[in-house]
Design a protein that fits this description.
Radius of gyration: 25 Å
Largest sheet: 6 strands, mixed
Shape: elongated
Number of strands: 20
Strand content: 25-35%
Number of helices: 12
Strand order of the largest sheet: 2-3-7-4-5-6
Structural class: alpha+beta
Number of domains: 2
Low-confidence stretches: 1-5, 11-35, 229-247
Length: 427
């Protein structure tokens, strides 16, 4: 028998994981002025004007409408650029009261402002892709009971100062405004406007916003235009529908052969606390790396991303609430793979994380190490290898890993850093 040559290939990105994520930096904030300080001053000006707009209770009600949209996961997120370009509530089709009141406020309260100056304010919103985010507002409050609202603002520079501080939880400046009680904040009269902020100044963060209705203005990344992962399908709760296969006994390694098709999924996962700093959402990513044989003589590492840009609200993270996971983590876990690498991360601009390691495969009774590497714009939460046979035994035996079981299921909870999740397997 002649000597075989085994070719080992490096990592391959599949199903939409392209080199763009490795090489293309985050889109920069487009500033209407050349200095970052000028940008924040303009954002303060917008915050003061919005403070006047939000004194109309109908406008506050519209904020809460956004919390009902499925894409917002119960949290209020409003892209003001989209509103001003389309003047409608996305997915609802009715005129936006926010935009209407924005124009009414100028006509009624600021006739001294020229049309050009007013249009410059709207252009600032559009050019800089300004949005409103309001963690906890819809989840914790009823808009009919709100008599006061805190308006805050956020810039990337507030986070950049703390990129190397893993314990930074985030905070933003803001001020309080009354609801249904008209109070002009004089956003263009610099001294009066500045005095209003100083006299009503607060520092906002998670702890503050849980107890005080708060919105934050800023240029937040729009994840709605990006993929959620490789054929991402959210699983229903265990008792809903027929998606969960009727597995009487999950398989173990002794049940596997070259002809079996081993699959894994993560029915549910949760964050033990917020990972991104205030006021940003936790936009989660999960990579799964396995080894596969391309041919008799060639093996390679494969990277999949079953969770990519999946939004976990700050309220869900703060409450350690379980969220639905992807339908599939692996659809065909190859028999020759001895283990898999699981990587959890959360998107964070201006952060590039490079990771590398080795996988183990078995070819004709010989263990082989395969190198892999990954570059991602993510804050690394946790990375760990999982031995296939050990993992299947834990699932099969329902072994308590020290973190208990998912409610009413008997499935053990796995923990990696600040992430907890459950796993199921079948063939």
């Amino acid at each position: 028998m002649g000597k075989k040559i085994l070719y080992i290939l490096g990592v391959v990105f599949i199903a939409g994981l392209t080199s763009c994520e490795e090489q293309v930096p985050m889109d920069p904030i487009l500033l209407t002025d050349s200095k970052v300080g000028d940008y924040e001053e303009k954002l303060k000006e917008l915050a003061l004007f919005m403070g006047e707009v939000l004194q109309e209770r109908q406008v506050v009600e519209e904020l809460f409408d956004y919390g009902e949209l499925p894409s917002n996961s119960g949290e209020i997120n409003i892209n003001l650029k989209h509103l001003f370009e389309g003047n409608e509530i996305i997915e609802k089709g009715s005129p936006s009261r926010i935009v209407q009141q924005f124009y009414i406020n100028r006509e009624v309260n600021h006739k001294e402002i020229t049309e050009n100056d007013f249009n410059d304010l709207i252009a600032f919103v559009i050019d800089n892709n300004i949005s409103i985010t309001a963690p906890y507002l819809a989840e914790n409050f009823d808009f009919n009971d709100i008599n006061e609202l805190t308006v805050s603002w956020w810039t990337e520079e507030m986070d950049e100062k703390h990129l190397d501080d893993p314990d930074w939880v985030g905070e933003t400046p803001g001020f309080k405004v009354p609801i249904s009680k008209k109070s002009l904040l004089n956003f263009r009269q610099k001294n009066v406007g500045i005095n209003y902020i100083e006299n009503n100044y607060v520092i906002t963060n998670d702890e503050y916003a849980i107890d005080n209705p708060t919105i934050v203005l800023g240029s937040f990344k729009d994840y709605s235009i990006e993929s959620q992962g490789d054929d991402y399908i959210t699983l229903p709760p265990p008792d809903d529908g027929d998606y969960y296969p009727p597995v009487i006994s999950p398989p173990r390694c002794i049940d596997l052969s070259q002809d079996t098709r081993l699959s894994l999924n993560i029915p549910h996962f949760r964050l033990r606390h917020n990972i991104r700093s205030w006021p940003n959402a936790n936009v989660m990513r999960m990579y799964v790396i396995t080894g596969e044989a391309l041919s008799e003589n060639t093996v390679q590492a494969i990277i999949r991303r079953p969770i990519y840009n999946v939004h976990v609200s700050r309220s869900d993270a703060n409450s350690m609430r379980w969220v639905n996971g992807p339908a599939h983590v692996l659809l065909d876990f190859k028999q020759e793979s001895n283990n898999l690498i699981v990587v959890w991360g959360v998107d964070r601009p201006n952060t590039i994380r490079n990771m590398e390691g080795v996988l183990s495969m078995n070819r004709e009774g010989i263990d082989i190490n395969i190198p892999w590497w990954l570059s991602s714009n993510s804050l690394l939460v946790s990375m760990a290898p999982k031995d296939k046979c050990t993992l299947l035994d834990i699932i099969h035996d329902k072994t308590n890993m020290g973190w208990g079981y998912f409610p009413n299921s008997g499935r053990p909870i796995f923990r990696m850093g600040d992430i907890e999740f459950t796993m199921t397997s079948w063939i």
